[in-house]
Design brief:
Layout: H1 2-33, E1 45-49, H2 53-64, H3 69-82, E2 103-108, E3 114-120, H4 126-136, E4 141-143, H5 144-153, H6 164-174, E5 191-196, E6 202-208, E7 229-232, E8 236-242, H7 244-250, H8 252-261, H9 266-279, E9 289-295, E10 300-304, E11 310-315, E12 318-323, E13 325-326
Parallel strand pairs: 3-4, 10-13
Antiparallel strand pairs: 1-5, 1-11, 2-3, 2-6, 5-6, 7-8, 8-9, 9-10, 11-12
Length: 328
Amino acid sequence: MQRRKFLQKSSLSTAAVLSSSILSTCKNEKAKAAAPLVANAIKPIVIATWNVPNATTKAWQVLEKGGNALDAVEAGVKVEEADVDNQSVGKGGRPDREGHVTLDACIMDQHGNCGAVVYLKNITHAVSVARKVMEDTPHVMLAGEGAEQFADEKGFEKETLLTEKSRMEWLEWKKESKYEPVINIENHDTIGMLAIDAQGDICGACTTSGMAYKMAGRVGDSPIVGSGLFIDNEIGGATATGQGEEVVKTVGSFLVVELMRQGRSPQSACEEAVNRIVKGNPNFKDIQVGYIAINKNGQTGGYCIHPGFSYRVYSEYGHENIESNSYL
């Protein structure tokens, strides 16, 4: 009996030591993965999908004056929402098959708060409505007529989003009604923007009019927090562009941030997220998906399936358009 008690006590002691060791290791690994802000971190900084110098300049102006990252990303993407020559975002966006321009957007702050709108009509600045959802309601997402009603109550101006140029292109498309999105044109459909302000806080925004000539009611990844955009202020942020269905299936932006948490660089994390899509899709050559990411230290990265995707970075070191590396 004495021997049995001794063995039981020995086993418990050993288990306690092992548990303590495992917990200590986990804490150490988490500390390493968190990549704490270093003294020479690049901040402020803004990064956005595609070559959008006007948008990144607007965001940089907010940051340069000491503004916060949330205001910067909202101001930046609003430039593209209002640009009628950008037919993949906001006013002037290409319509769905029924001829309606419908907008999706989301925004996320450094505290993990987020807001989104889907299938929003008649309001140019979907990202600002999404921010109001985040700040003024207990919800994360509003859709369709409810989102439009909320925007109206908040004083957003209603206007016709379908421009003559997009309408004429839609009428031409209707002659054959073939749904064959063009890589890097009709199916890039998004501006995503990430920023770090002088305080080291990270925020992001994503806004789109969706794929050209999509089925009525279609929603892609852009307003889906975790797919089109994700922010973790301890680690970094990521946003996606391209065929949203593939991003949703892999919860792409969340995946990128979690890979950075595990110690990957922004570039390596974006590459792995694209590889996950490619591995599971025998038709991957027919689609485009691109990711950009930034970590807490201001390091950036981007990767895509097809060549032709670029992203824009603006920091104290200047303004640069970077042609992303690609899988193909």
